[in-house]
Amino acid sequence: MAADLGADERTNPVEAARAVVAGRHPEARAAFLGGSVAAGRGTATSDLDIVVLLDGPPAPYRASFLHGGWPVEMFVHTEASWHGYVERELPRRRSPLLWMCADGVLLVDADGLGARIAARARQLVAAGPRAESAEEIGDRRYAITDLLDDLAGSVDPDERLFIATELVRRTGELALAAAGTWSGGGKWTARRLESAAPGLSSRLRHGLREALEGRAEPLVVVVDEVLGQVSGRLWAGYRRSGTV
């Protein structure tokens, strides 16, 4: 979230996060500061992502607010709801809640729950996401192939903008799935690709720039290289059964 407060107006992030927890939930069993700030990759518009563990109500809930010059996103859970939310997120191969506790700064640990949650989060992160099924990979191949066809036939620059940007996003996600690594949304897609497929983000960016100027070939070449890791394009012969 972008804030209209300058970075020089902000208090120390860890101190600010501790103050937020103490002020809003002094009874917290555990709390973490996660996200970009905790990872040392904060920007002038970064917020404080804070996970708080309580014994019971009002958890679970999430809230956004300002504190000490910082925009704050707070995720409040019980021990049971934390595990429940993480379990629901894992099949999607991305879990912000999991990473906030695996890589975050432990702010509060009143009874050892924080240490247990951190250890479990790191264990799950290290184990990696589940492998995508052949059917799921096929769905990705089909969607990207369809976009490539749309791009090839596009003569409208406005349509090309949305086709090409969607193609870049889906190709990055396919590269992460093919590498068997965790996925992410927005900036985290680029960050995950840094280690999973070095240089791919830069090539996709260059290809996107060229595609928006009407030169699709550089982007098509990169996309086809990623598709080549999972048996290439897929359109003819694609079939999925529906549900009643």
UniProtKB/TrEMBL annotation:
Residues 30-58 form the Polymerase nucleotidyl transferase domain. Pfam families: NTP_transf_2 (PF01909). Gene3D superfamilies: Beta Polymerase, domain 2. It comes from the Bacteria. This is Nucleotidyltransferase domain-containing protein.
